[in-house]
Input
Amino acid sequence: MSEEKGLKPIKIEDLLQRTVYDVDEDPHIEIIDERGVPKELTMLCPCSCYTTVGEKLLYSYEGCLECGLCRVLSEPWGLRWEYPKSGRGVQYRFT
Amino acid sequence: MRIVVGIKWVPNTQAVRFDPKTGTLIRAGVPSIVNPHDFPAIELALRLKDMYGGEVIAVTMAPPSATQGLEHVLGMGVDKGILLTDRKFAGADTLATSYVIAKGIEKISKEIGPVDVAIFGHETIDSSTAHIGAQVASWLGWPYVYYARDAKLVEDGKLRVTRQTEKAVEEYEVNLPAVVATAIKALKPRPVRLSYKLRAKIEKPIIAWNIEDLGLDPRCTGLKGSPTVVANITWMPEVPRKKIVYTPKDPRDAARWILKQLFSDESVAGFLKKALWGEE
Amino acid sequence: MSSQTPTKFDVVVVGAGPAGASAAYLLAKAGYKVLIVERGRGAGTKELFGGKIYAEPLRTVWPDLDKEAPIHRWVTRERISFVKGERVTTVEFKLGRKVAFTTYLTEMAKWMTNKAVESGAILVDEVRVDEIIVENGRVKGIRSGPDTIEADVVVDAEGVNRILLEKLGLAEKIKPDQVALGVKEVINIGKKAMNERLLLDEGEGLAWFMVGDVTAGIPGGGFMYTMKDTIALGLVLHIGKAYEAAKTGELKHTVPMLLEKLRTHPFFSKIWGDADVLEYGAHMTIEGGLRYMPKKLYMPGLVVVGDAAGLLLNTGYTIRGVDYAVYSGKLAAETIIEALESDGPTEENLRKYEERVRESFMFRELVKHRGIEKVMEDPMFFTKLPAMLNILLAKLYEQDYEEPTVLEALLDSVKESDVSLSKFMLKLFSVVSKL
Ligand SMILES: Cc1cc2nc3c(=O)[nH]c(=O)nc-3n(C[C@H](O)[C@H](O)[C@H](O)COP(=O)(O)OP(=O)(O)OC[C@H]3O[C@@H](n4cnc5c(N)ncnc54)[C@H](O)[C@@H]3O)c2cc1C
Ligand code: SF4
Output
């Protein structure tokens, strides 16, 4: 985490706790073929939705901020990417 | 078939946070949602309508802001929304709430047409009492089945309700009208549809009834009609997580290690012993 | 569906953002049957931006903007800080007049959409449009799940991700170099503390752009805007370059951690201390407007507005997207009204929308700043220049006995920040000429 002295850093899970979600039962994003999804998303995805376990890239959609970054960096065959349905997903209030 | 489904407009509890400084709950700016456990009830109601025709009427006792929640379920295919709303309903416990809802259902039966089934979710995420279905059934004097996963009509106009408990799948046949409460996650809800939502926006099939419309005695509603007294709330202390990584040799080793960890905590050990072997 | 519910509208607008809301408002006001379809739960719930909106283009649509809109503060001070480690060089400008205001786009989009609804447009929210329907080379309407709605004209105001436009073949797959990722935190500092610490009067606002270390070597910058009683703090990062840096391992922190470092930066964090973070979010934006523009902004029965049309000016230190979106919505509405009053939304008639865009201030500015993204991608601008400035001032001020001349200090700092002076002057000139 941050090496700066003084202020306490906030963990990403705790940060995402401040953002409101109405999580859908179905994932709106799914890895179809890992080879078409870059591992760098573990660094770049703003909600750290992507993690690697060993060589395997894992994804969990619950904290997704719907920015579209992973769609841009992935091959169309690598990822099924949709906006959530029925108004679900992130619910921004003060942005 | 005329099916009433009860919904509740609840704060999205995921978004309710502790203020790290004051230690109180931050509720400001937390948007409300349709109680997630109501969706299996809505889905069951819509399936019954798909099979037997008729209409689905969503009922909620809430302030006018709950109109947004009614619009959401109208978007799923519910035909009408009824908002039971009055300042005198505020502060109600489950008894006063179920009373108003039961009276609402009676009024629907009288003015819109006889209600065959009233369906509720298992419980709400903001109070977790699971009372409403049972209480409405008892106010109305209708049979009640809960933990329902499915329902269909059978001979003699009875409703066969499938109920799943821990060990068995049970089927009940009840005479109509009846009250059903669905189990959590029993059915996956259908999405909001453009055509339904548009119909809701144009036809605005939402009716609001207040205490006079329902002809109720204010002594029986809201805070006044609520015998429940909340004596005290104790918040669960947050238990800091220990970060322990153990690389087991094999599954057996892993299981042994986990058990050892669990039994090393006195309170967990006591609980486990009681649960596993009935020891005190 | 009951007979009352229409399945055809004059105009269907996809997306209740600034672009869609402005088009819908003007069309509804002119008496057309308008349907707005928005995927979020109410307008604004999927919106995130920096924080500053230029007012004048919005006044051309809503003359009562200043009185009615949810304006938080008028920007009276602009600051730029060049950051190198703990050293920070700041330039502050006090504006002579009110040009732009701060707000939440979540509130603003809701306000604009309400204006459209008050004028008779119908808003259907919680519904995602899945496809723009084309028949015989002409847009016929939209599809969402099993439902279709016909329209004389569809206004595509879906924003930067433009999934529908890609499906339609009017836009290509987005390239990482065309877009930037914005991350933002909203900090609950409170009005009093903010006004005291930033020396602001009631209703006055500060816009702050930070360049240098804050983006860890990735082109982009940090931003801070004062809202009514909160602070919007964020980063904008060039996606193509961030991706490269992640691949080579140069990027040492995750994106949320970079923002974390900015919030806890010993200099900047003095302002908000450990005030609570209310919300965190992310959204994509456009790097270079012209490069993002689709081949055509129209086809029979369709016009494309706002971000989806690439109509956004990103100069590196300012993003103008909301006013461009609103203005493009206005040009679209004017064209559609003309078309529907004559022989319909034909290729010929809707071409006038693109012509209007090309004649507008938006296109003029985009052309003028063409290539600015290339300059901004140059490490000279976002790493070396901030480093040099800070070393220069350190040479001048961090001295116990010596007092170097400015020239000495300048030459030293140029050397130490690994900049060749002639190249630097050339670069500086090219930056200045494009800003
Ligand atoms: C980090 C960041 C900082 C920025 N800072 C500023 C700034 O300070 N000032 C400024 O003027 N601009 C700024 N911008 C740019 C500005 O936010 C955009 O240019 C502007 O919001 C574009 O408006 P729009 O209406 O075209 O699209 P959007 O605002 O993106 O609206 C699109 C709408 O369409 C909806 N939608 C999308 N797809 C569908 C679908 N399939 N079905 C139904 N609905 C759909 C979305 O939910 C959304 O509501 C910033 C952007 C970012 C990311
Ligand atoms: S859309 Fe953005 S926030 Fe969601 S998973 Fe992809 S990169 Fe992460």
Observations:
- The first strand of chain C starts at residue 8 and ends at 14.
